[in-house]
Amino acid sequence: MTNELPYSQSCENNKDPILAILKQTFAASNNVLEVGSGTGQHAVHFASNLPHLVWQTSDQLDYHDGLRQRLAAFPTDNVLPPIALKVGESSLPFARFDSVFSANTAHIMQQAEIAQMMKALSDDLPADGCFCQYGPFIENGEFNSQGNADFHEYLVTNGYGGYRDIDELKSWAPNLSLIEIHRMPANNLLLEWRKK
Fold this sequence. Notes:
Elements: H1 9-25, E1 31-35, H2 41-49, E2 54-59, H3 64-73, E3 79-84, E4 99-103, H4 111-124, E5 130-135, H5 146-157, H6 166-172, E6 176-183, E7 189-195
Parallel strand pairs: 1-2, 1-4, 2-3, 4-5
Antiparallel strand pairs: 5-7, 6-7
């Protein structure tokens, strides 16, 4: 065990703008699953500011040691230790939660993986369940900045899935309604989905 916690500068930069949205979208939620908790920075920040929630962390097993270190360093009663979750390999436990959050995962996953996740959310979230999906996306076939277009090319070249078009996400999730597209700093978006 090291003394240095895993750290993401982008998490530090975006956690407060995202929290401002989650305070509204998750106001009536009780149990939230975070898909891809990574460093755990979002989990401890959001849960400590949304004390009415139980926040379930999850990620691939490689991230669990770092996640547990952060949860131990910043103990919060309403954050649960991570469960193993790898989209494309794990069963997706969305039916157990009334809301789901995921940040900066869609462009890392392969197309088949994000399609599977969107379909599972569409099928399994309970009625009026909320899915908040943060990150960079393609909208109406267009990138919203040259930087995002360049990063998409970098991701695809290096074996990642790349940015997904919002219309593509909709096609995989027929039982979800895209309630609002929240404009966020650094050319990112927060997509607020609700189960019909």
